[in-house]
Amino acid sequence: MSRKLFLGLILSISLLFVLAACGGNGGNESSGEGSEGDSSEGSDSGSDQSISFTAKSELPSMDPSLITDSVAFQWAGETYEGLYRLDENGELAEGVAKDHEVSEDGTTWTFNLREDAQWENGDPVTAHDFVYAWQRAVTPDTGSEYGPYFLGGVVKNASAIAEGEMKPEELGVKAVDDYTFEVNLEQPVPYFDSMTVFITFMPLNKSYVEEQGDSFSTEADNTLANGPFKMTEWKHGEGWKVVKNENYWDADTVELQEIDVKVIKETSTAVNLFQSGELDQAELNAEFVDEYRSSEHFEVVENPYLYFFKFNQENEVLSNADARKAMSMAIDRKSLTDVILNDGSVPANGYVPSNFVTVPGSDGKDFREVQGPLVGHDVEKAKEHWDKALEALGKDSVTLELMGDDTDSSQNAMAYYKEQLETNLEGLSVKVVEVPFKERVRRDQEGEFEIEAATWGPDYADANTYLNMYLTDGQNNNMNYSSEEYDSLINKANTELAQKPEKRYETFMEAERLLIEEDAAVAPLYQDAKSQLLRSNIEGVFPTATGPNFEFKWASVK
């Protein structure tokens, strides 16, 4: 997400996210007759396999090594292809890799690559492209956030390289030959193949990247695709266009010829453009859901994206656990999802979302079902914790800053948070600060916030993608939370228990209880779903959990 993260298209597509997340079918189901004024006419481009979609923010970058937001995840995920993709059932589908083998000790993964994969300029995609890209992602001079985060502690020597202690050439990756890619891990990682779907693991054409220099992936003309689509137009602040990549190895499967993406922050504008036939998709907020619920174009897309409060414990008030617990308990999550959002989202009662991963040895039970609720709305207890916090702090009133996105749906939620906190916690004043998505991401990375209305989408299909965020000094911590006990539990789950799945998940659950119930380091608020209008003659567009928010490879206009 994933700074995932909805999100983006879904986060922003948190916008736009970023954030979003694995499996599920976003197929279009007719729910009745269209509402008054609902146009069922498709856009003029529909008949020639061209569609138009919305995004709620600009693309910060299309460089796979530098991308941290879900908007770029979405569109780089369509123009690049790694070892695997995800199909509509959330299962791994062939990408550049045809298959792979894993050594008995679980530390050596050998990927057999197809020989017909090409870059859009005709160059072959080889194992050397993966070696270069992964080395580049952990090289300090690159400035990648996710390279050290995802490869560190996973691929051999990645952490030491990221810290400048070893050379990039010592990373545990090797091109055995042009079409055999070998990866050596620090320790067994049972979900490693799922990780390779993430954008940081995409290949890069070394000669092209070095030829472009600092201009690489900053304009459409400076991008080079090996995926189903390629970028041909990028009007900063307005939108971009991707078209079918005829040199893609599976081009015969790709029916769409063009996707025109327009940056539109206001829901009303997007709906008007959909109604006039200028857009084929428009995300809805609460104001429009009831009006269009009966439209044949209406659908709800569920995602394992979590929205939550991040508490920066550098702040004196937020360093107090009772203050954090009080703010978490003060929010009525059901009213938030049912009234304010009204888009299919559901209250979150833990940090690992529901319908995301099953617990080993539980007969297929969902993580949330086995763990049970860890947080909820309780005004009386909230007041008790708040009074205790104020007494410990020697204060009778405090002012805290709450930072969030500047989209209209986010603004509604932010106003609700302010009302709930100030009404239920006497003496608390909340100053709402709404910033563009790109600026929120920057402030998050720099720790420049007090409370952040944040979001996270999974980067691979394992509970660790949520729970390892809060290791001491972790790259996605950024809020000064530190717990030796928590660190120990997460490290234990990923080392000595790596090949003992049942005990590993028992340890994850213990860690989540510590994070949410005892420390209230973050406050889960709701699990995302998006209501949208999608032209009913568009088929095969579906959400994924750990790749792009939506997958277009198999889409078509009927």
TrEMBL record:
Subcellular location: Cell envelope
Keywords: Signal, Transport
Family, per entry: Belongs to the bacterial solute-binding protein 5 family.
Protein's name in the database: Oligopeptide transport system substrate-binding protein
Species annotation: Salimicrobium salexigens
Boundaries of every Solute-binding protein family domain copy: 93-478
InterPro entries, A to Z: Peptide/Ni-bd (IPR030678), SBP_5 (IPR039424), SBP_5_dom (IPR000914)
Signal peptide range: 1-20
Domain of life according to the entry: Bacteria
Region (Disordered) location: 27-51
A Pfam family matched in the record: SBP_bac_5
Keyword Signal on entry: yes
SUPFAM superfamilies on file: Periplasmic binding protein-like II
